Amino acid sequence: MAAAAAAAVGGPQPPQAEMPAPGLALDKAATAAHLKAALSRPDNRAGAEELQALLERVLSAERPLAAAADGEEAAAAGGGGGPGAAEEEALEWCKCLLAGGGGYDEFCAAVRAYDPAALCGLVWTANFVAYRCRTCGISPCMSLCAECFHQGDHTGHDFNMFRSQAGGACDCGDSNVMRESGFCKRHQIKSSSNIPCVPKDLLMMSEFVLPRFIFCLIQYLREGYNEPAADVPSEKDLNKVLQLLEPQISFLEDLTKMGGAMRSVLTQVLTNQQSYKDLTSGLGENAYARKSHEKYLIALKSSGLTYPEDKLVYGIQEPSAGTSTLAVQGFAGATGTLGQLDSSDEEDQDGSQGLGKRKRVKLSSNTKDQSIMDVLKHKSFLEELLFWTIKYEFPQKMVTFLLNMLPDQEYKVAFTKTFVQHYAFIMKTLKKSHESDTMSNRIVHISVQLFSNEELARQVTEECQLLDIMVTVLLYMMESCLIKSELQDEENSLHVVVNCGEALLKNNTYWPLVSDFINILSHQSVAKRFLEDHGLLVTWMNFVSFFQGMNLNKRELNEHVEFESQTYYAAFAAELEACAQPMWGLLSHCKVRETQEYTRNVVRYCLEALQDWFDAINFVDEPAPNQVTFHLPLHRYYAMFLSKAVKCQELDLDSVLPDQEMLMKLMIHPLQIQASLAEIHSNMWVRNGLQIKGQAMTYVQSHFCNSMIDPDIYLLQVCASRLDPDYFISSVFERFKVVDLLTMASQHQNTVLDAEHERSMLEGALTFLVILLSLRLHLGMSDDEILRAEMVAQLCMNDRTHSSLLDLIPENPNPKSGIIPGSYSFESVLSAVADFKAPVFEPGGSMQQGMYTPKAEVWDHEFDPVMVILRTVYRRDVQSAMDRYTAFLKQSGKFPGNPWPPYKKRTPLHPSYKGLMRLLHCKTLHIVLFTLLYKILMDHQNLSEHVLCMVLYLIELGLENSAEEESDEEASVGGPERCHDSWFPGSNLVSNMRHFINYVRVRVPETAPEVKRDSPASTSSDSLGSLQNSGTAQVFSLVAERRKKFQEIINRNSSEANQVVRPKTSNKWSAPGSAPQLTTAILEIKESILSLLIKLHHKLSGKQNSYYPPWLDDIEILIQPDIPKYSHGDGITAVERILLKAALQSRMNKRIIEEICRKVTPPVPPKKITAAEKKTLDKEERRQKARERQQKLLAEFASRQKSFMETAMDVDSPESDIPMEITTAEPQVSEAVYDCVICGQSGPSSEDRPTGLVVLLQASSVLGQCRDNIEPKKLPITEEEQIYPWDTCAAVHDVRLSLLQRYFKDSSCLLAVSIGWEGGVYVQTCGHTLHIDCHKSYMESLRNDQVLQGFSVDKGEFTCPLCRQFANSVLPCYPGSNVENNLWQRPSNKSIQDLIKEVEELQGRPGAFPSETNLSKEMESVMKDIKNTTQKKYRDYSKTPGSPDNDFLFMYSVARTNLELELIHRGGNLCSGGASTAGKRSCLNQLFHVLALHMRLYSIDSEYNPWRKLTQLLEEMNSQLGNEEQQPEVPILYHDVTSLLLIQILMMPQPLRKDHFTCIVKVLFTLLYTQGLVALSVKCNEDDRSAWKHTGALKKNTCDAEKSYEVLLSFVIRELSKGKLYHEEGTQECATISPIAWSPESTEKYLQDFCLHFLRITSLLQHHLFGEDLPSCQEEEEFSVLSSCLGLLPTFYQTEHPFISASCLDWPVPAFDIISQWCFEINSFTERHAEQGKALLIQESRWKLPHLLQLPENYNTIFQYYHRKTCSVCTKVPKDPAVCLVCGTFVCLKGLCCKQQSYCECVLHSQNCGAGTGIFLLINASVIIIIRGHRFCLWGSVYLDAHGEEDRDLRRGKPLYICKERYKVLEQQWISHTFDHINKRWGPHYNGL
User: Fold this and answer.
1) 1616 with 1577: CB under 8 angstroms?
2) Can you list the alpha helix ranges (DSSP code H) found in 336-465?
3) pLDDT exceeds 90 at position 1795
4) Which of 302, 372, 1237, 1288 is the most exposed place for a label (fewest CB within 10 A)?
């Protein structure tokens, strides 16, 4: 046989006869066993050959995909059922062979026993729920599966649950990634020692079979891949192939799950180079194998990759035409020019027209090593498998298989190397992919497992040049989308930048590669190699320079831009992810002195790259106007490494700084950004659209600020500390375009700025200077101080939740940077600066979260407006911070007025940056400050309080940071190039403050007032001659100054003088010709800064001589200057504080201040006012007056509104009192008067113009949810717990009705009970009334209103025109007078017998429907509305559909539903009495009229009227029963008394008389009492009954026997004993009823409880019908109070006795006769049905208030049970699972699987469970969603985290705990039916939930 098989090697010959027919499993097993035995022999060659032959036949890849399999082969493959069958057959063979003849399952179990793996390694795909514990993680990417997490101990750790984005694997057991303390119980044991080694023969077959199997798989993959035509990958084809291979890959995946033993076999197979070579070389005689190999080579080629042998074929191409060849300098020289990246890139060559005008640029550069990009050689199965995995764009199954193998260490290394080898190929495939998102996720799924492990990353870096490969690949990737930079010099620029409009950037396609790079840089060993490798640094700076200056904005000056490009977000994301994050990664390894060398390297190459950039864009000294780019990554790299060098590495700053010229260039672009920010906020860029504002916001936004604005400001601070201060200050004012404004003249011309922008630009410039000089983020603050300052700034703007604070505080983006969210320092700083405000629920329904608010001492000492301004994204936040500050000062009584931003002391500067303070002591700044103070004092235009505030802030900064001694004052004068000597003698602010300036020469337009003044008389000018600066008054020109300085520096620095300054094309500073000529004028000033400040004090305080030096009174003040009274206040305080500091700094200043104050200051001379100015002044005055008027009106309006709110509008809280709009009139007016809220008229409601109440009708099943036990049901959280609805009120009533309908006449049954427990109609009103015709026109207007409303007008929905409460109908008010009412209420002295007759007569009169009036029409239509509110199934209970009895039952049940619900709203009893709020807004009176009107249309046949049974003795009882063949009527004792009450009352003509009402109640009470006695008699056992029977019989003949319960009870027992009611009791019955000892007290209590519910409902009804107030009382006396209120108690009743319920009885006919008549009916029924007869006896109403299900404390318990639970309908795990909080049903939200007749499951359930109202908890989001009819809304969450916050969608994944208050509010809204009023955001759900 062996020979025969060996003959078959030559290819698939027809099988030999001796070969076992492969049909039967048995044969397979036998063959396998035989082969295994053959292979176990020492000489196993023959066995091996035989096995090879068999595999060749079974596993040939030719057959299945090439469907032309001829019959014989198909038969051999097992019955030839098409390709699928053959494959299954092959798999079966493999399983058999692996098991070596045994059973496959036993084999799996055997292998598992040898699993030595101590790692979990569970692989998951996207959307899987996993955990991350930062306390246990070493790598930030660490993750655990739920099982390992819950089995480990993480109490008190900083962990969170997350939904995996890209997929991942469990790291439990891997000590490289996490600390061992966090391992779970299963993976703690290092198990390798105690596991026996694997017996050789167990896996022997696997070693033979698997190589063939994997080769077969690879052949399929080769076969299936067709090079896509025209570069559109035919995804369909690829997917088809993958679907066919599903079983094979799954089989491999199952093998990996067998544990370590099998994985090591697989590793051997996958990495064995020899077997790969033997099988795949394609050199054999097998044609198929050859063809397969060819396909493989073609695939390689088409990927732009070469097989090393074909190197020459590929050759070196010429760069194709049309791409400019730009040599990018700085690449380390190498060989070979790289042509087009890959041949398949051709389609990109046209520069992708879609992006318009920009031409793409390709670089043909000499890169390090061409082979990185182009050469792939596969040496093992693993390598080729990965190649195909990439080619097929990472199919999920393959990825999972490759990752499942990772626990095997040998494999892990091999696979990582293979992955790195294919890195360039991955990038190319990714760029072309159409599904780049999915693919990115899959790539990261793999790479994060490989690169998070430091050991592995280090090994690959050393052995495979991982860093070179990554950097090169990134560089190549970006090269494909470069364009020419238009920054600065558009024509001649040589710089190239990435084009942010390209898909590569727009869709973030690069993120997988960048994220890998960031990941490996987080390992110290790898980062060190990077920082030491100069070539790599050069390449990397090259890469970064591609982003330098991208997304250039050009200011639109004429029209608004047509199309707002949204590329800016791509640009910011790219800079953050591709430049900043790697930078932070590198910085994290430069923390100590020993790392200085690294910093020097980075700084050096960074400066080189910057120099190249300046050359490339042709930059000399002036930035091009009207351009800005927010992206300067090179500047920022440089800045951050400088900061680190000084802060952590103790490097000398000057040793890493360039020369002055370079510093001047460096500062230009960051300064340009700061000026542009001010321009954008001044609306100068408004024509560029909203996106430019978006950029300005993103630049300072919390995720970006510490990689963008912070480094920029730091770099400017460094430049300022090293450059000439005068040059720097004048540069600032020139950049901000406000130089022309800084003149003493009252008028000026600004050639570069419109007048309306001047003020805000000046504010911008000054604010920038303040920030520059105050900010210490990188100049000496420690990390904790920075964190504290950031936190205080955010908290001052607004109270914040914990998570928003975490989000807003710019955390160093690199996760290893110390301040990890939730780390110790964060929490401790937070508790130091803020108080926690627990979450509250406002009655308006908006739910607050737990908030942190700044502590008082923070406002007092730490509020820093500068930090707030730096960090605000929206300008309004600055205002908000100031408002909160003001409120704090008012509240704490520190300052009553409007305060100015406080001045805050700064942390000391680091010595390296001391030069920064020279800015404050330079003449240029002093001149600016002096000029501005003067202008403010003289009221020149365009100056605001903000300007003054900043000026004073700068002066104060200068005083705080002045040189200690003034000794050098005199010496400082001199030196020929001192430019501003004519202004100030020295440069120290302290001495310059007191320096008087007399005259200034200014250039002014000829029209200016200064020109017209007479020049000072010659005498005075002579006398002035002696003054030091009369002659030299000069035009103060900052610009000239700056030019001069620049010239000097350049001349000093550069030997070639020829490239000094580029000739300016246009001299921007010359005034345009159209403007009036400028002329020179001399102004007399005679002020110093000090004198200006003192005058300013007078001006601000509005009083002359208001300033008095404080030290004259209290000399102490000079010794101890920090006086709290100066720390908060307005401008006056600020001036006083500054003067005090000036006096402290120098005695001279002190003296001069005193002198100035002594001279009585003459009033500021009234300026000569020109006509134009007069006009503006008048305008101002008029505006002021108008403003005051407006304020007054507004105040008045507000108070009116307030009073209206108080009276009319308390929609939001169900408890609040709203007075009815129905005003009870004075006695002389007879009609009730209503106000119409639409037309505003008042008047009665009349037949032809009826008025109606605005009402909301809704179906409700709340009543049906009452249960009889006090314990609320719990939400099920295990399979065992289930909720059954048997004990709900609705279920019990349903059962009762169907029982009655089984045995009694249908029409009679429908009168014996009420429905509406489920789907009853509840009517509620806001209390406002309107004319019904007004309402109709209102609805018309709503219908025509195109605005999107939250409600549907077609369904009759609207909002009340006055209070905006939701409504859907109008309930007509019955015209009636109140006086008449009073007549009815007078007590009559008629006997009860007379009243009973009257009632019967009145009921007998048929009620004709009133004539066709508007009123009656409306009554009909509202009745229709009421019916349509609920579903048909909740209305139709009769056996004959459409019978009038149905309507009758429905109508009185509506009244019942509303009364019962009101009782529930009052808490289930009436003890609180009074007009409880629910009553205030009740519309029961009107509702009763409508119902009565309709019910009287159906007269009950007087034969059947229960009234007769109640009040008359019927003689011919026996005969009646005898002759009735059909079903009998319901016995009167089975009737529900409350239903009888409503029927009796609604059958009476309205309005009802009070004595009739009382009569009906009295009669019904007798029946009720009797029912109580019957129920009691059934409850107790035989002995009790006989005892009672006896005692009662003795008292029967006493005088008030009819009012003694004992007598009546014994009589009932005697009567009922005649029937079978008591007989049927088996012994088990007695056991169930607890043997209560029935004492008289307990009996009395039982009877009272039995009757109490009826009394409550009746009292409510009386309250609504007759307007009587309910008395309040204690719970124990509720019965007696209510019965006397209802008139059941005789008035002469004495209260001394203990109260006896029987004393309320008032029998209309002798009690014993009527009772025996009632009992007779029961007996005749129990003759036949004793069991049912007993069940139907009414039990006492024991319903407790309705509740929602009780939820567990911790949300995780719900989540873990439900998020994997399968749906009972479709048995799948729902995508959005939800659970109903009313009944606990599990449903699929939006699941199409469970859709029925276009209704999704949640909507359907809301109709069945809540008659249209559903409350669902969405499991995956932790939020509650409310469905109400056709609308839905998100209600919020009742689970909050430890900081009192919701976590919608579980994004943060922190543990959540129930918030009981919120749940109570939800329950309250459900019970009170106020969802519609309180929740505002409703939308239609279109049945799709």
Assistant:
1) yes
2) 370-374, 381-391, 396-404, 409-421, 423-432, 436-451, 454-464
3) no
4) 302
Do the Cβ atoms of 354 and 492 come closer than 8 Å? no
> pLDDT tier at 1034 (50, 70, 90 boundaries)?
very low
- Residue 193 confidence (pLDDT): 55
**374 neighbors 314 (Cβ within 8 angstroms):** yes
Please answer whether residues 1306 and 1445 qualify as being in contact, where contact means their C-beta atoms are separated by less than 8 angstroms.
yes
Pairwise CA distance, residues 33 & 39, whole Å: 10
The angle, 0 to 180 degrees and rounded to 10, between the axes of the packed helices 755-774 and 660-681 is: 130
CA 912 to mean position of chain CA atoms = 44
> What are the CA-CA distances from residue 1682 to residues 543, 556, 1663 (Å)?
88, 81, 11
- Bridge partners of 124, per DSSP, are 168
For residue 1142, give the nearest of 958, 984, 972 by alpha carbon. Answer: 958
Distance from C-alpha of 583 to C-alpha of 587, rounded to nearest angstrom: 6
User: Which residues are CB-neighbours of 405 under 8 A, at least 6 positions away?
Assistant: 256, 263, 266, 267, 270, 411, 415
Tokens of 1151: 């003296």
Distance CA 816, CA 590 (A): 13
The rounded distance, in Å, linking the Cα atoms of 417 and 54 is 34
Q: From CA 587, how far away is CA 640, in angstroms rounded?
A: 8
Q: What is the pTM of this model?
A: 0.81
pLDDT per position as a tens digit, 201-255: 777 777 888 888 888 888 888 888 776 554 455 566 777 888 888 888 888 888 8
Of residues 1820, 1819, 1816, 1823, the one with CA closest to residue 1839: 1823
Q: What is the widest separation between alpha-carbon atoms in the chain?
A: 143
**Distance of CA 614 to CAs 78, 327, 604, 1243, Å?**
75, 16, 16, 84
Can you tell me the mean pLDDT for 1767-1778? 86
The alpha carbon of 626 is separated from its chain's Cα centroid by a whole number of angstroms, namely 38
Question: With DSSP H G I counted as helix, E B as strand and the rest as coil, what are the percentages for the chain, rounded to 5?
Answer: 55, 5, 40
Instruction: Check residues 1696 and 1750 and name the one with the higher pLDDT.
Output: 1750
With pLDDT > 70 as the criterion, what percentage of the chain qualifies?
A: 78
Quote the distance between the C-alpha of residue 634 and its chain's center.
Answer: 35
C-alpha to C-alpha distance for 988 and 920, rounded to whole angstroms: 8
Question: Which candidate, 1422, 1722, 1743, places its Cα nearest to that of 1574?
Answer: 1722
Residues 783-798, mean pLDDT to the nearest whole number: 93
Distances in whole angstroms, Cα of residue 489 to Cα of each of 10, 355, 485: 73, 22, 9
Give residues with Cβ within 8 angstroms of 1262, minimum separation 6. Answer: 1461, 1464, 1746, 1810, 1870, 1871, 1873
| Structure token pair of residue 1503 | 């034969």
Task: Give the confidence band of 1512 by pLDDT, cuts at 50, 70, 90.
Answer: confident
Q: Both tokens of residue 58? A: 């079974």
What amino acid occupies position 1097? H
pLDDT, tens digit (0-9, with 9 covering 90-100), for 1328-1362: 999 999 999 999 988 887 676 778 888 889 999 88
pLDDT digits (tens, 9 = 90+) for 841-895: 665 556 788 999 999 999 999 999 999 999 998 889 999 999 999 999 999 988 8
Averaged pLDDT of the chain: 79
Beta partners for residue 628, in sequence order: 553
- Count Cβ neighbours within 10 Å for each residue of 529-555 and write b for 16 or more, e otherwise: bbbebeebbbbbbbbbbbbbbbbbbbb
Q: CA-CA distance, 1315 to 1296, in Å (whole number)? A: 11
Convert the pLDDT of each residue in 658-672 to its tens digit: 999 999 999 999 999
- Sheet strands side by side (includes 1883-1884): 1786-1788, 1777-1780, 1813-1818, 1824-1828, 1831-1836, 1883-1884
Cα gap 1520→1526, rounded to integer Å: 12
